[in-house]
Write a structure and sequence with these properties.
The structure is a single chain. The chain is built from two helices and two strands; from the N terminus they run αββα. It has 114 residues and is mainly α. A two-stranded antiparallel ribbon has the order 1-2. A hairpin with a 2-residue loop joins strand 1 and strand 2. Helix 1 runs antiparallel to helix 2. The chain is rod-shaped, with a radius of gyration of 23 Å.
C-alpha cells in the first residue's frame, strides 16, 4: 500500500476516534439536559418555598426561586454546549465521509493481496 494512502488511512482512524469521543460527549450532555429538565419540572410542581439540593453526599437547604434560577442557567449552558458539539459532530462527520470516499477510490484501484 502506498505511503500516502497509509497516512490518510491513519488520519481517517484518528478522526473516527475523535468522532466517537464527540458522540459520547453529546450523549452525556443530552442526558444531563434531560435530568435538568426533570428537576425543573419537579421543582416547579412544589409549592414549598424551601427546598433541599444535593451537594455530594449532603443536602443543603435552599430557596425554591434560587434553585429555579440555578437550574435555568444550567439548562441554558448545557443547551449552548450541545449546539456547539452538534456543529463539531457535523463537521467531523462530513470530513469522515469525504475521507472515506477518497480512500475507497484510492483503494479501489489497488490490487488486493492474499
Amino acid at each position: 500500500m502506498p505511503e500516502n494512502i497509509q497516512q490518510e488511512l491513519m488520519q481517517f482512524q484518528q478522526l473516527q476516534s475523535q468522532y466517537q469521543i464527540i458522540v459520547s460527549q453529546l450523549q452525556s450532555l443530552k442526558l444531563e439536559m434531560n435530568e435538568t429538565e426533570v428537576a425543573l419540572n419537579e421543582l416547579s410542581k412544589t409549592e414549598n418555598p424551601v427546598v433541599y439540593k444535593s451537594i455530594g453526599s449532603i443536602l443543603i437547604k435552599s430557596e425554591k426561586a434560587d434553585m429555579l434560577d440555578d437550574l435555568n442557567k444550567k439548562k441554558e449552558s448545557i443547551g449552548i454546549r450541545i449546539t456547539t458539539i452538534e456543529k463539531q459532530e457535523d463537521r467531523v462527520k462530513k470530513k469522515l465521509e469525504e475521507m472515506q470516499k477518497n480512500l475507497q477510490k484510492a483503494l479501489g484501484g489497488q490490487p488486493t493481496s492474499g
